[in-house]
Amino acid sequence: MNEFGVENLVFSSSCTVYGEPDYLPVTEDHPIKQAESPYGFTKQACENMIADCLRSNKLTRVVILRYFNAIGAHSSGLIGELPIGTPNFLVPFITETAAGIREHITIFGDTYNTEDGTCVRDYIHVMDLADAHVRSLLTMCENDRSYTLNVGTGKGSSVLEAIKSFEKVNQLKLNYKIGPKRDGDIEQIYAATDLAEKTLKWKAKYSIDDAMKDAWRWQKNLDRK
After folding, report:
1. Which helix (H) or strand (E) holds 13?
2. What was the pLDDT predicted at 122?
3. Which one of 23, 39, 67, 112 is the catalytic residue?
4. Does 39 qualify as catalytic in the annotation?
5. Which residues of the chain have pLDDT under 50?
6. Residue-level pLDDT at 34
7. What is the residue extent of each domain of the chain?
8. CATH-assigned architecture of domain 8-224
């Protein structure tokens, strides 16, 4: 970046930097906790490196976007998520199960202290996330400032609610079973989005239902190829 004169950066961080939250919704000034996973560790390490680069004037402006759970696809069904091998995220498991690629979805634990016992996440449509990136670039340059911002919907949905959303909007029945809890899984987390909304003049527009419709459209297009 220094060699080619790149001084501005939008970095894809993650809400995993917060660990198991002390309060909900999670704000940007929530303490950063020891990482529960290698993935979380990489995000914390990169945020620290970026801070060092800003202090040493290696970078001029940075927006760190702490993603919550990005899901969905472009509404055309032409651009979407294509995991190589076993998916790491819930929605590809849902769509691949619906397509008959997988026999069932495993829900990791149903005894958490949540309404239905399954983990709660803040699912944000990938197109809302894309819009936040565009707004970040514009705002960073217009204001000549750096920011750290949560990008989510501000609403938590459980794993079971996500599955039910897919079933409802696509009029399909999914085969799922309950499995054991996984070490390091956070019980529930969702974003305080006030700062991003105010700073970027941005707000998530799409619902989890919208994301589930678009994700299934993408999967069906894949299956036709």
Report:
1. strand 8-14
2. 98
3. 39
4. yes
5. none
6. 87
7. 8-224
8. 3-Layer(aba) Sandwich (3.40)
DSSP codes of every residue in 134-174: HHHHHHHHHHT--EEEEES-S--EEHHHHHHHHHHHHT---
Helix/strand/coil for 52:
helix
Q: What is the pLDDT of residue 86?
A: 87
- Would you call the peptide bond into 83 cis, given omega within 30 degrees of 0 as the criterion? no
pLDDT of residue 184: 83
Helix axis angle for 208-224 and 159-170, nearest 10°, is 60
With left for phi above 0 and alpha for psi between -120 and 50, is residue 100 left, alpha or beta? Answer: left
* Burial track 84-94 (b if 16+ CB lie within 10 A, e otherwise): eeebeebbbbb
Q: What is the pLDDT of residue 103?
A: 95
Write down the pLDDT at residue 8: 94
Task: Give 68's Cβ-side CA count (13 Å radius).
Answer: 30
Give 177-202 pLDDT, tens digit per residue: 999 999 889 999 999 999 999 999 99
